[in-house]
Design goal:
about 400 residues
Amino acid sequence: MKQTCAFLILLVSMIFQPVQAQDPIKVGLIVPLSGPWARQGQVMRAAAELAVEQINAGGGIQAHGGRPLELVVYDTGDSVERAKNAAQRMVAQEDDLVGATGSYLSSFTLAVTEVTERAQVPMLTLSYSDLVTSRGYDYVFQTSATGAYQSENALPLLLDIAEQASGERPETIGIVMDNTAASVAFVNPIVEGTALADNNLELVVNEVFTPPLANATPLIQRVRSRRPDLLLLLPTAISDTKLLLEKMNEFGLGRGRLPTISNGAAMGSPDLAANMPPQLLEGVMSIVANWSTSGQEAMIAEYMEFSGEPWMTQNPLCAFGHIWLLKEALELAETPDSVAVNNALHTMDITAGAADYFAGERVRFDETGKRIDAEILVIQWQGGKPYTVYPNRDAMTEMVWPGR
């Protein structure tokens, strides 16, 4: 009888051992799913879910017996305090979490990473703020070009593009911007530093407004009267963007007549085309840290079918890529735990696979977690949709230089 019982115990353990080996490995997504930024969180969630589905369909994490990934999702809500509380719940409830991605707004990311750092959970983010990786943290990784990098490099890049496209180098520039933190952070280094003098540019229009904008006429009248060679147009609200572009069109400056450049993914949002005649956006460009690029067509089509979205913007693309980066780190890690994954991310140096989902041709991080090879892209509205047009190796269509 004892021998029979022992045999049954051994048999049961043999039966359940493979099941235990296939327990999922948890990765987190912490983004706004309620409040004013909920839509961005929703598309990031769809992209992360698609990445997990693809990885599991491909056999899971091969280095750890084919274990599947499980996505656990937490809502940051609409404030820094709520974002921090969500992060605290995440690390408390998911004590076996190996890594996470989020949090959309830089202010949310700064709060969330205070929590994940203490919990030793590596956090991947697209947030632009230079503060993200300047606090001496070991468990945060920034895959986008920082705000300072974008500001410092955008102007000479745009001037080179203009000269190549039109044969003439711009000599004057105008700025129309709101006074939100994102716009100010991009423009201040240009206006207050040496960028204008270094590039032989004269600032002929410098208009700042507080959103929401009630009347765009005075702003655009100033642009029309001075007619700069380049216009930096930096609204952050869709309603303000619509007012400004409508007035530019009324004054004969829109629809590709005046080179108009913005900064950030908001200028490529599907919501813009849904809230204004798409022809108003024709020719408008924006500097972004990531976007759909050549070679990603099959993945983009799958995302569009999966999510119902008309195209893939920076935010879901980064969320998708971050899940694949965590997969790469797990394949490199000796054990499927957060410390080992963090160590793998610090030593990672890849030029294919997950690297295909980020601007530039290589993914590696310095000791602070800042991505060494991060680049910027230029997108342009053409035919009712924003396409990557620069650099050429990533372009999905040819740039049409406004006014040419």
